[in-house]
Amino acid sequence: MKKILFALLLLLLPQTANAEITLDLKRGVVEPMPIAISTFHATSPQHRDFATQIPGVISANLESSGLFKPLNPRAFVQDVNSMQIAGPRFGEWRAIGTQALVSGSVTTTADGRARVEFRLWDVFSEKQLIGMAYMTTPENWRRIAHIISDEIY
Q1: Tell me, what's the pLDDT at 19?
Q2: What is the DSSP code string of 93-150?
Q3: What is the pLDDT of residues 29-78, one digit of tens each?
Q4: Using alpha carbons only, what angle is made at residue 150 by residues 74 and 35, rounded to the nearest 5 degrees?
Q5: What residues have CB less than 8 Å from 28, skipping those under 6 apart?
Q6: N or C: which end of the chain has fewer CB within 10 A?
Q7: Is residue 106 left, alpha or beta, with left meaning phi > 0 and alpha meaning psi from -120 to 50?
Q8: 3-state secondary structure of 26
């Protein structure tokens, strides 16, 4: 009798449903931000070499982060001198697909050191996001380029 009641009880208990759930998850893809890193304007011939080398270090650092896609400088629509004098022509920068723009300058101080300035611009809002200046010796230009990269990142 106990066996019959036990079997009847088992029949009356709700059966658990076995359903196979399949999730198709795909990794999110983040496209790197197109960024233009202009040659820095040099006011002194003694700093012209590293004023042209700083953007290369910044570009390599930002590209290796995977978050930025530096644009080819041959595609740039504005030269360093006009950007220094009149500021960025944002409409032209948007036309080549850049979202951010880095500009800068290197000037010589009275004691022979270099003052390295840079600005990060949002091309769509036409506003400056960051503006910093650093004092250094000419031999320390690479360290300054890494510091600027960190600020942008």
Answers
A1: 59
A2: HHHTT-SEEEEEEEEE-TTS-EEEEEEEEETTTTEEEEEEEEEE-GGGHHHHHHHHHH
A3: 678 999 999 999 998 888 888 889 999 999 999 999 999 999 999 999 89
A4: 25
A5: none
A6: N
A7: beta
A8: coil
Residue 16 has pLDDT above 60, yes or no: no
Fold of 32-152: Rossmann fold (3.40.50)
> Which residues have a Cβ under 8 Å from the Cβ of 26 and sit 6 or more positions away?
none
CA angle 129, 149, 97 (to 5 degrees): 60
Tokens representing 83 are 């950007």
- DSSP β-ladder status, 100-108 and 41-42: parallel
Q: What residues does each domain of the chain span?
A: 32-152
Percentage helix, strand, coil, to 5, in the chain?
Answer: 40, 25, 35
Q: How many CB atoms lie within 10 A of CB 12?
A: 7
- What pTM does this model have? 0.77
Pairing of strands 114-122, 33-37: unpaired
Cα angle 113-118-119, degrees, rounded to a multiple of 5: 160
